[in-house]
Amino acid sequence: MVIAVGETSATFTLSTGSEPGQTVLTIEAGVEILMEADTGFLISGALIARGTTERKIHFGPASGTSPGSWSGLNFNDSSPEAQFNDNGDYIGGSILEHCVIQYGGGKGSAGQIVVLDSAPLITDCQISHGGKIGLYADKALPDFRLRNCLISG
Description:
The protein has about 150 residues and is an all-beta fold. The chain contains no helices and 18 strands. It is globular and about 45 Å long.
């Protein structure tokens, strides 16, 4: 079970395509995603989670504050790569920006964020208090980028 709370309302936009990997989940700035034990996100399409400095997106447990209280965010090979223009600016694909990810890395997860055969952009995020490592990447694609993130505890 996933519970979403926001300042006035939790905003998700889910659009689906006809091909694998064309589904897009957009999470608006200021939303808090609360995960039940042993649950997480398996991202086979695009995840666009773009918070701001003032209105971060929070991923955490629905109850408790123990490391490993929920699984994590798992990007797989069906998740579209982040795309960049000639200046290196993000223009599409999967992104976590200004997000706080806490107390994940629970049962069955290699880390709070897992990147397998994919290349999301993870920028300006805080990843802490995990039951496993903050970020696990295996066979990450060449365009995988991690910028200005704090990974601790």
